[in-house]
Amino acid sequence: MVAGGKAGEDHADRIFRALADRTRRDIVRRAMGGTLSVSGLARLYPMSTTAVQKHVAVLEEAGLVHRTPRGREQLVQTNIDTVAEAGELLAQFEQLWRDRLGRIGDVLAEPERGERR
Amino acid sequence: MTVLAVHRDPVALTLTIVSEFDAPAARVWQVWADPRQLERWWGPPAYPATVVDHDLTPGGRVTYYMTGPDGETYHGWWRVIAVDTPHSLEIEDGFAFDSGRPNDDLPTTSVEVRLTAATAAKTTMTMTSRFASIDDMERVIAIGQDEGLALAVGQIDAILAAPM
């Protein structure tokens, strides 16, 4: 069995806390392309630039986004590797459930045996 | 069984699969509510599940183990969060020690199931699986691979190639 260890746990905690907020999840999605600045993001939400800046800082600390200076602005970009890792893991669960659903289909296709409910 | 839609959300860490079965909702519900039917699909063919306790009421427990080809057993449990027969079910699924006692050091998975009648003879089942963190997902998969849920790399590639 794989144990995450203390460092792994702390990292997981940061990711979880970062993604527990709806606005932050939205920022991660919108910043995939890496063309939005903090002020550009702030225009998308009914909150101040400072509030959005704080959200970005939490995401940055969790390793979900990074900032790149561009002129006087800072562009926010999602760390695709982190999100891709999650996508790959979800794909494994998808296969697990596709197999289970296929077996449910097999159970349902059989003529009902003696009722035992 | 037909898979109608799949949604993987790598940010919210959820997987949703919508599938359709040629049976009325009350019949589909039985594959969850009847332990003898549940054990015929929960584990892979080489690791069949045996359901020990099965109390499908809010706060109730379901305990089970899967038996591998060499006779080794892998124990698990559900905590039932909500039940609305035959419409919806919400459970937490976790790992247990060989004694059947839940191992609280290992991550759990939340599973929500919703059944809706597509027609009198067809049922749509929407299953949503939710994880607390990427680390949790990794650990559940690592343990699952020990339990015969390991997947061929080719299968995963095929899924990843499909648009999300």
Write up this protein:
The complex is a heterodimer of chains A (about 120) and B (about 160). With about 120 residues, chain A is mostly helical. Chain A folds into two domains: about 1-80, Arc Repressor Mutant, subunit A; about 80-110. Chain A has helices at about 5-20, 20-30, 40, 50-60, 80-110, and strands at about 35, 65-70, 75-80. In chain A, a hairpin with a 2-residue loop joins β2 (about 65-70) and β3. In chain A, α1 (about 5-20) runs antiparallel to α4 (about 50-60). The longest helix of chain A has 30 residues, at about 80-110. Chain A is elongated and about 70 Å long. The two termini of chain A are about 35 Å apart. The model of chain A has no long low-confidence stretch (mean pLDDT about 85). Chain B is an alpha+beta fold. Chain B has a single domain (about 1-160), classed as START domain (Alpha-D-Glucose-1,6-Bisphosphate, Chain A, domain 4), CATH 3.30.530.20. Chain B is built from four helices and eight strands. The two termini of chain B are about 20 Å apart. Mean pLDDT of chain B is about 85; it is low at about 150-160. At the A-B interface, α1, α2 and α5 of A face β1, β2, α1, β8 and α3 of B.
Keywords:
heterodimer; A: 117 residues; mainly alpha; Arc Repressor Mutant, subunit A; 2 domains; three-stranded antiparallel sheet; 3 strands; B: 164 residues; alpha+beta; Alpha-D-Glucose-1,6-Bisphosphate, Chain A, domain 4; eight-stranded antiparallel sheet; 8 strands; 21% helix
